[in-house]
Each structure stands twice: as C-alpha cells, then as structure tokens.
Design goal:
With 342 residues, this protein is an alpha/beta fold. It is built from twelve helices and eleven strands. It has a seven-stranded mixed β-sheet, sandwiched between helices. The protein has a four-stranded antiparallel β-sheet with strand order 2-1-4-5, with helices on one face. The structure holds adenosine-5'-triphosphate and magnesium ion. The site of adenosine-5'-triphosphate (ATP) has 14 residues, from strand 1, strand 2 and helix 1.
C-alpha cells in the first residue's frame, strides 16, 4: 500500500461545462478549480442550480459528451479524466471514484435483491465468482450498519427503510475500495435523525477506507458537521473556497454571509433567519460582472461589469471572489458577527 492520508488525489482545474440547448447555451459550470486529498471531506455548497451536481457529473464522466461542451482538467492520480478514453474512464468510475446520490430508490432496481445488486457491482469490475461476490455484499452491508446483514441482503429495496437504502448505496459504492466517494445530497431525502446517522457513517467510512469524500449539499449545517474544506458555489462559479474552520469563522464573500445568515443554528432563533433576497440567475444569461451582484447588498461600482477573480486577499487566509476590499470585509464581517450574537 502506498496510499497515505493527505495524499493529493484529485486536482480539478478550470472546469467549465456548457449545455447547448434550443434556448441558448446554459453556462452550468464556469472555471471551477479545487483539489481533494485522501482523508479529506470537501463540502460543496450553494443554492439550487449553482452547478454542484454538474461539476461532479463532469468529473465522473457521466455527462453526454455529444451534448455537452466541457473544458479544463480533472487530474486523478496523474491522469486527466476529461481526455481518458471511455473504456478507461469506465474502469475509474465505480471502481476508483464512486458516487452516492440523493435518491437511493432511483438507483436500486426494485426487482432485484439488495445483496444481488451489490454483488453485481462487484463482479462488474472483478473476476470474483458469484459466491465471493455475495459474501462481499453481505460483509459490506454489515459494515455500513445493516443489522442481520446475511438475511437482509436477500431483501428487496422496498423492504428497506430510506436510511437503510442509503446505507446499501454506500455499501455498493465501497465495493471496490474506491479512492474517492462523491456524495450528492446523500441525506436530503431523509429525516433529521437518519440524516445525522448517514453523515456519521460517511465519516466512519472515510476513516476506515482512508478515502477522500466530496459532499455536495445545499445545507451548510451538514457541511459544518463534517467537512474539512468548503467550496461555496453560485451560478456555476466558485465564490469562496478554503478550510472549513476558516470559512465558518471568517467567511469573506457576501454570498457566504447570506447562506450562513439563512441557516438555523443553536444560537440563532428561527425568527432571526435572514433569507437571501431574490433568486439565483438563469444560467442561459448569467449577469455580467459578479454573478451575485444583483442580489448583493454590498455591491458597488465594479461589481456589475467586472468579474471578480478568485484570489486570496492581502491578509486573508482563503480564496474568495469579491471586489470588496479586505478591510471592508473585515468590518462588515465584524458587524455581522455582532448581529448574530445579539
Ligand atoms: N443536461 C442539461 N441540459 C441543460 N441544462 C442543464 C443540464 N443539466 C443541468 N443543467 C443546468 O445546469 C445548472 C446547474 O445544475 P446543477 O444540477 O449542477 O445544480 P445543483 O447546484 O446541483 O442544484 P441542486 O441543489 O438543485 O441539485 C442548472 O441551471 C441546470 O438547470
Ligand atoms: Mg444537484
């Protein structure tokens, strides 16, 4: 084994995804760059339509290449996944990079036993015989906390609860000991207690399998619980990116402030939540300049015309894309913190 925690596994550089449609070109993802190391959980957050899922589908090679214009680089263990031939990409997908989606029902076939579906995922990329594959399925179901895994493996998906189905999907994703697990809204369809259990499971799995996790969610609370680093996306772009502790303690971008102020916490009463006014733009014709400027209470002269670069401001500790001078952000951040505490 050469793997070790902290090893850089994924380097996404300038990822851009466009969908030509009859209405025009949807600019779904624009110039997105981030990295993922072994043992790290990267939380990707942003409102609906911000490009979170499309970014991950592009990484996984799951977008129809004939109907999508993709550019940039997705370097995984020294290879660019965007230029990998389809058969090699298929070997990476599901084996080295696995994905768990929001709705396990949509991913599990209703007519096949849960264990058989996991066993099949195993044989798809290995020479294992039927018996070994079934044993692997049972072992993994047990590992992800399905009680009586040996007999429950024979159940059909509808005999599992929502939380158990999501556990089964995680078991299936782990079948080949992947390096990266991408979880796209893995808990959105679940009730709150089950949500917490599944997040805990993902964290346990990350440690035990020594993998990197990308956790996509619109819920900053989910990210606050588990992520080591956070990337805030809006209108297909990265607004802020850095260590989670930094971003929660010293958020720099007005959009991140907006997300944080609309998130319930123990300190913040529900009636003190401040939703972000307006709604995300259409990506057929995103606003000029900073895409957030039409909704930003702090916009000033350059925001409507100039795209702010993603950079570390002088004295700042992490990347953000906003024209406000750093001193001004510190001042506004302090005012915000006072308001939250009041
Ligand atoms: N196949 C497609 N053709 C055209 N537009 C698309 C396609 N897939 C996604 N889009 C658009 O790309 C943008 C980004 O979508 P994406 O699904 O990545 O958002 P998201 O951040 O995952 O949102 P959510 O939180 O709702 O899951 C949206 O405007 C969406 O409508
Ligand atoms: Mg999505």
């Amino acid at each position: 084994m050469t793997s070790s925690s902290g090893e850089r596994m994924l380097d996404v550089r300038g990822l851009t995804v466009r969908f030509p449609t009859s209405d025009g070109i949807v600019q779904a993802v624009s110039d997105v760059s981030f990295a993922l190391s072994r043992g790290e959980t990267l939380g990707i957050v942003g409102e609906s339509g911000s490009g979170k899922s499309v970014s991950n589908l592009a990484i996984m090679g799951l977008l129809n290449r004939a109907r999508t214009v993709i550019s940039g680089e997705v370097e995984f263990k020294g290879r660019d996944l965007l230029t990998l031939p389809p058969d090699e990409l298929r070997k990476v997908r599901g084996k080295e990079i696995a994905m768990v989606f929001q709705d396990p029902f949509a991913c599990l076939h209703p007519m096949y036993r849960v264990g058989a579906q996991i066993a099949e995922a195993f044989t798809a990329h290995s020479d294992a015989g039927k018996h070994a594959a079934w044993s692997r399925a049972v072992e993994l179901l047990d590992h992800v906390g399905i009680p009586n895994a040996k007999s429950r493996a024979r159940d059909y998906p509808h005999q599992f609860s929502g939380g158990m189905r999501q556990r089964a999907m995680i078991a299936m994703a782990l079948v080949h000991n992947p390096d990266i697990l991408i979880c796209d809204e893995p808990t959105t369809a679940l009730d709150v207690t089950v949500q917490a259990q599944i997040l805990e499971l993902i964290e346990d799995v990350k440690r035990e399998f020594d993998i990197g996790v990308i956790l996509v969610t619109h819920d900053l609370g989910v990210v606050a619980e588990t992520a080591n680093s956070v990337m805030v996306m809006y209108a297909g772009r990265v607004m802020e990116y850095g260590p989670a502790a930094e971003i929660f303690r010293h958020p720099q971008h007005p959009y991140a402030w907006g997300l944080l102020d609309s998130m319930p916490t123990i300190e913040r009463r529900l009636d003190a939540l401040v939703p972000i006014e307006g709604s995300p733009p259409s990506l057929l014709a995103p606003p000029s300049g900073c895409p957030f400027h039409p909704r930003c209470p702090y916009r000033f002269e350059p925001c409507a015309t100039k795209l702010p670069p993603l950079k570390v401001p002088a004295d700042g500790a992490h990347l953000d894309a906003c024209h406000l001078p750093y001193d001004k952000k510190v001042e506004l951040g302090a005012q915000r913190a006072k308001k939250v505490a009041a």
